[in-house]
């Protein structure tokens, strides 16, 4: 198959980061594939050289009528070829099975569009591209694992911190660091998919529920790590943070035994380049924050109600608490993992959020605490900024 000619024919005006082709036997028929990863979209070509063919564009969104949704919404549009409702369904199914998050161009020319054939097409792509940049096994593009590896090296080499990385992503097969603890020694998404016949998202949810049930396995290893700053590399599927409770419960257990946590919610800048996607990102980030970092101020309301001077303002206090909880704000910090100044800027925000600067010996004076409260830079921040 002439890949260059196909790309030219499809008029893809985008920077290509990776492209490859291969052939496979799908239900007794030779099938040729082309897989391409571009800056703003992905490309899949699957052909059994039938005369009937279609090209579809599949977009992925997390909002519907301005409301943030838990599951991604896949919209399919036929660009050319013969009308085929089964082809549209196949394009949607393959996009979902591969967990693709960017826009997808998919060209299909198949002998039939039965569920078995389409599922075999998706499996063939999965099997061949397991080590390629296709799909979203770990929410590709947001850079969680890259960030964890980079910030670990940065803290060790530049800040002389004792740091360890804990991998809690049961589908993380391409780590750029050596984890002190690896959840894949306990359970993996691949094993769960094979043994329980689940899809990737269902298998990932099962894995996190399994980790929650076997929290002692994690705790027994954590207690062996002494006096270290820990970085947890987490899975990327959004449903784990918007409505599923296992990760939230695991974090709660860690906090109860004295771990001071800060969640770094990473968003691909690609989703901030379009107004509609940016609004979706804001809503998703807010939903994640309220699910994972729940600021439960009800305890404060109870204290106010018991106070001799404040209990008469019970309704006002309740309204204020509700206002604070219902209108939490979201803001983003730009991150370039190749820039030490960018890493330093994020480090300062994280250190304030998890309280590291207050207990590390770096910042303990009352003046430093007050400076942080009003947003001023601490002494270590000024030193680090000048140093870099």
TrEMBL record:
Q: Record keywords: Hydrolase included?
A: yes
Short name of any one Pfam family annotated for the protein: PAC3
InterPro entries listed in its UniProt record: Gpn, Gpn2, P-loop_NTPase, Proteasome_assmbl_chp_3, Psm_Assembly_Chaperone
A GO molecular function term, named singly, is: GTPase activity
Nucleotide-binding keyword on record: yes
Q: Name one GO cellular component term.
A: cytoplasm
Keywords assigned by UniProt? GTP-binding, Hydrolase, Nucleotide-binding
SUPFAM superfamilies given in the database record = P-loop containing nucleoside triphosphate hydrolases (SSF52540)
Q: To which protein family does this belong?
A: Belongs to the GPN-loop GTPase family.
> Quaternary state and partners of this protein?
Heterodimers with GPN1 or GPN3. Binds to RNA polymerase II (RNAPII).
Tell me the function of this protein: Small GTPase required for proper localization of RNA polymerase II and III (RNAPII and RNAPIII). May act at an RNAP assembly step prior to nuclear import.
Q: What is this protein called?
A: GPN-loop GTPase 2
Organism for this UniProt entry: Tenebrio molitor
């Amino acid at each position: 198959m002439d890949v260059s000619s196909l790309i030219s024919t499809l008029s893809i005006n985008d920077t290509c980061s990776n492209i490859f082709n291969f052939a496979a036997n799908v239900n007794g028929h030779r099938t040729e594939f082309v897989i391409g990863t571009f800056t703003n979209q992905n490309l899949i070509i699957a052909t059994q050289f039938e005369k009937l063919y279609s090209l579809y564009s599949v977009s992925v969104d997390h909002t519907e009528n301005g409301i943030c949704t838990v599951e991604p919404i896949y919209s399919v549009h036929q660009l050319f070829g013969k009308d085929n409702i089964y082809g549209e369904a196949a394009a949607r199914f393959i996009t979902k099975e591969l967990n693709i998050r960017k826009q997808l161009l998919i060209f299909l020319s198949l002998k039939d569009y039965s569920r078995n054939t389409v599922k075999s097409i998706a499996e063939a792509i999965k099997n061949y591209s397991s080590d390629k940049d296709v799909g979203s096994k770990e929410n590709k593009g947001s850079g969680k694992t890259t960030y964890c590896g980079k910030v670990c090296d940065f803290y060790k080499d530049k800040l002389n911190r004792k740091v360890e990385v804990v991998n809690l992503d049961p589908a993380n097969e391409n780590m750029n660091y050596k984890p002190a603890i690896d959840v894949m020694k306990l359970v993996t998404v691949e094993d769960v998919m094979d043994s329980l016949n689940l899809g990737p998202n269902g298998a990932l949810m099962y894995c996190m529920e399994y980790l929650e049930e076997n929290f002692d396995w994690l705790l027994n290893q954590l207690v062996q790590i002494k006096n270290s700053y820990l970085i947890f590399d987490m899975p990327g599927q959004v449903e784990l943070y918007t409505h599923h409770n296992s990760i939230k419960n695991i974090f709660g257990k860690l906090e109860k035994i004295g771990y001071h946590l800060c969640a770094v919610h990473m968003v691909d800048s690609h989703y901030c380049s379009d107004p509609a996607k940016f609004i979706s990102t804001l809503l998703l980030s807010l939903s994640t924050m309220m699910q994972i970092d729940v600021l439960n101020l009800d305890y404060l309301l109870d204290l106010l109600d018991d106070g001799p001077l404040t209990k008469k303002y019970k309704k006002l206090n309740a309204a204020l608490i509700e206002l604070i909880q219902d209108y939490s704000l979201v803001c983003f910090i730009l991150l370039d993992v190749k820039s030490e100044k960018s890493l330093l800027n994020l480090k300062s925000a994280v250190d304030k959020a998890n309280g590291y600067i207050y207990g590390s010996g770096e910042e303990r004076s009352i003046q430093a605490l007050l400076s942080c409260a009003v947003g001023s830079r601490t002494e270590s921040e000024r030193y680090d900024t000048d140093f870099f």
